[in-house]
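Issue: copy button drops trailing tokens. Both records pasted manually instead:
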Amino acid sequence: MTLAAGARDLLAPYWKLFGQASNYNVVWDSNAKGVCVQTEHGQKPVGLFVKGKISAGALLLLPDMNFIAEEFFAEDEEEGEVWSAAGEQFSASLIAEIVALSNAIASDGEKTPQPEWASAAEFALAPEIELRQQLLQAETELEKAQRTKEELTRQLEDVGQLRALLFEKGKPLEAAIISALTLLGFKAEPYVDGKSEFDAVFESAEGRLLGEAEGKDNKAVSIEKLRQLSTNLHEDLQREEVNQPAKGILFANGYRLTKPDERETQFTEKCITSATSMSYGLVSTDQLYAAAQYLSGTSDEEFARRCRVAMIEMKGVVRFPEIPVTAEETTGGIPATVPTPD
């Protein structure tokens, strides 16, 4: 193979390093546009350089190379197969040439790609040395800023998981309930052993509770989940370490795909009647979110205590205390648009 006349300036440094190691598997049509590599005999196109017609992009199609040659690998007693010195040198040279080609193409191909040897320290200019040091410092600061950004992003995602109370179901909803109960001052966690599994077991100075959670796409939570809660309360009381029955709480995220202030009652009438007669509490998770949202931005222990007492003492639908007016502080002085109990 040989370089086509119009591509010699662009590809000469690359071809000097990798021409002998290249081999072609494709022959293009003899009328192909942008031929950059051709067979030495017959001048059959085996490489193309195609520039974009409506953008600055370009496509460079070059003959293949063997990227998994035996000399590129070595055996290490601890790590097994690793790159050999020859493999590392090959990859470093290839990357440098690809970057140089990219830069040359970006400048409309008017400049010859800088050979790798031209970047050696012996050819460096004094301003380049200073600028490279500044660039290294800038890259170090950029990496530090990137790590900070990634950590803040992770924290933001963790905090935002509380919003799952508004639209989730299953395990994500259960995890958000645990987080909200913790903000209310409960010691809360799911419980799993070889016999039983409860969505939430939570307690405080005011009492001990056991909760089950259910999310429904476009309807209210029915009495079926209340039966599951009743079964779990009996199983919980049978544990040796439990001496008193826990208060049962059914958490519901009914009509979860609808905006909270547009939802219908999230428990069926039969569920509300049964829960009241059985002294269970019914908590809609959008109301739980409103309380947790307020407490996430303030240390109002009295409000948190009143929320806990409501869950302990109320039968049927639990109504949390009104969000204090000072909740505006959590939205920078703008009244908080959070759902509040009727």
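Record 2 (pasted manually too):
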Amino acid sequence: MLTEIDFLDVVRLTPLVAIDLIVTDAEGRVLIGRRRNRPARGTWFVPGGRIHKGETLDAAFTRVADAELGIAKLARSSARFEGVFEHHYTDNFAAEPDVSTHYIVLAYTLQFIRTVSVGRFEQHSEYLWLTPAELLARDDVHENTKAYFR
């Protein structure tokens, strides 16, 4: 496990690789959460998380779905791959001045027949279900999330 100082060096020097989950329900609404952590703290964002060194994509997907949605043992094969996206932030997890964060994000869509009840609030303080049009119209939804719907 990296120390906070070592992880800050990683953020300073390299892009991070992550998975974002674009979760939709039968009504076409998208799940977004208000971020607790930097970067992008306070904005609405789709659930997601970074891939750990040595972790397979399948294992990372399952872990992120469990951590972010509370859905255990969800297979990556149950999702549709949407593509590779880049996310750039001027800040970082530690609020260290002059250290930006760069993510390479693998985006996956999960479509559920019914609205999923999300009860975990580790990364997000609250959740909303919005249509893509509602999401795009809001100023507090992060541009990196809006990019999935443009």
